[in-house]
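Section: Multi-chain targets

For targets with more than one molecule, the full set of components is provided together so that the structure can be written out for the assembly as a whole rather than chain by chain. Components appear in the order listed by the source. The example entry contains two components.
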Amino acid sequence: MVTGFARLFVILVVLFLYLPVFVTVIFSFSTSPRLSLPIEGLTLDWYRAALDNPQMAAALRNSLILAAGTALVSGLIGCACSFGILARKSARLRQGLLAFSLLPAVVPLLVTGIALAVMFHALGLSQGLRNAMLGHVLVCLPFVILTMNARLQNFDFSVLEAARDLGASRWRAFMDITLPLIRPSLIGACLLAAALSLDEFVVTWFNIGNQQTVPVLVWGLMRRGVDPSINAVATALFALLVTLVAASNLIGKRGAR
Amino acid sequence: MATQDQPLVVSAASLLPALFVYAVLLVVPLAALFGLGFWRADGFTLIPDLSFANYHRILTTGLYRDVLIRTVQVGMITAAIVVPMAFALSYVMRFVLERRGALILQLVLLSLFSGYLVRIYAWRTILGKQGLLNTTLQYLGLIDEPLVFLIYSQLAVVVTLCGLLLPLAVLPIYSAMLNVPDDFLEAARDLGAGFWQRLRTVLLPMVLPGVTTAFAFAFLLSAGDFVTPSLVGGMQSTMIGNIIADQFRGIGANWPLGAALAFVTIGAMMMACLAVVSLLRGVSRW
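Its structure, encoded as tokens over all components, is:
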């Protein structure tokens, strides 16, 4: 009885979380521009309309540049950081450092976004892709550190100590032992950062000036009213994000074993 | 064997790049934003100053006060729905479904990656006047006229925010429950403790840090959101984030005023958050 009730609760919660996704995917293929049931017919017109949007190419290019740059930079910095945290011998220090590294995730994105805009303005750095990229690195870092920290939990530092005892330099030990061991976790963390960056809107919006990314373009369409091509872009973005996250999990887990 | 005085294998220098990023891209910008709150704006020109005029204007304007109160309200309501839901979901995943629970967790977390803007916009499709919910209810003959209060209202804002923040609230609570050994709850049961007693005297005190983190996430991030109210909220559900955002990317933009507003908001949110956290601590100390 209790288990049955618990199951029903879990199903309802998952439905609540995924209802927006189902709706978006279904209506991206529906012929009627009015978003209501029953669905009259299926079409790919909204995908064509989305691709025909003259700003789409530039938005997509910018989004990919940001995602690649963010993945690389926050992946490397985050990896180094979580290694630095895990190698501390005091558990208290490790916990403190980890909590501190999550700080940007608790500051509302709106505040982070405007604060960065103010600083860039003061430094005379005009708004654009560069400023947005720096913002993306900041907001993706906590999630990279958190994931790497979980994946490297069982990393055996004694193999590094052994290498150092046998006379390997720090660099040599890193390249020959650490890197091959953590490569899957590192790639997994980078893919996660790419997914977060592709979906980032708020910090981008305050720092990118008049340039476009896919979310910024979608925001413009949403503000203008009901446009079914939004559902098409959203479905494509969702497919891309899920692929990246799934790949991140699969590759990362292989490393943790 | 490594001894305490041996140099560490991974030097603390590997923390430096991340610390540098946090210092230059978070601490310095927040300090700059704080400083800007005391400046003045003349059209688009920013004039350095050390005046409390912006703060004075915020605290004496009824509109800002009302919107700030409404924002804290919406954040509190959202957190009050999301945290118990996340607690119940985590409990079921951890103690009832056990192994399959981990799979459900993946599904819950994956929903975070279904697109931030999209998840908000889709609720417009669901709750709209001619949306999924209204047309379904009409089709079933349960209502004659569409329910108009579903969209462009505080209700729509709260429902949407709950969907956005539930996965984030589950994460800390579930992780905390993973550290609770099964036999703790079993021992309490063997000693005759009922379900609610086990929950309050054994489980809740053990997972309290996770619950507190979940509350902070749900409250701070929902009260700080401006996209949700501008897409599914109405004229009466403007939140402080909308007003702040407009000061930075709007027609009548006023950066110094926006900066001061941001810090008044942060202050109000911190106070509200601390009040609830100390309340939670009090409740679980039995």
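The radius of gyration of chain B is 23 Å.
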